Amino acid sequence: MVLSSLDDDQAVETVSIPLAGKSSIADYMVVASGKSTRQVASMAQKLSEKIKAEFGRSPRVEGLPTADWVLIDAGDVIVHLFRPEVRTFYNLERMWAFGDTPATGNA
């Protein structure tokens, strides 16, 4: 449902990261970008409404006033919505990808 909603709202570079075995905070983390703060805020609001309608509980949302980076905690799924520059700076995908790819180079 999360990925479908983001796709409908034309999110850019949506990535789903399985967290099982890496963290107990959630089962999945979804990272996506919007082209502007306005799009990021709109995607976050729509996704929050859909989660509330489908599951009967409001997700915790942080960062909506500035909408550079909005975090939506829906329990089993955590969603990070970024403006492209902010996403590049924090690079969450790389941080959470540990153990997924073989190490390169010599230790």
From TrEMBL:
Keywords: Cytoplasm, Repressor, Translation regulation. Pfam families: RsfS. The keyword Cytoplasm applies. InterPro entries: Iojap/RsfS/C7orf30, NT_sf. It comes from the Bacteria. The keyword Cytoplasm applies. Its main location: cytoplasm. It is found in: Cytoplasm. Interacts with ribosomal protein uL14 (rplN). Functions as a ribosomal silencing factor. Interacts with ribosomal protein uL14 (rplN), blocking formation of intersubunit bridge B8. Prevents association of the 30S and 50S ribosomal subunits and the formation of functional ribosomes, thus repressing translation. Belongs to the Iojap/RsfS family. This is Ribosomal silencing factor RsfS. The lineage of its organism: Bacteria, Pseudomonadati, Pseudomonadota, Alphaproteobacteria, Sphingomonadales.
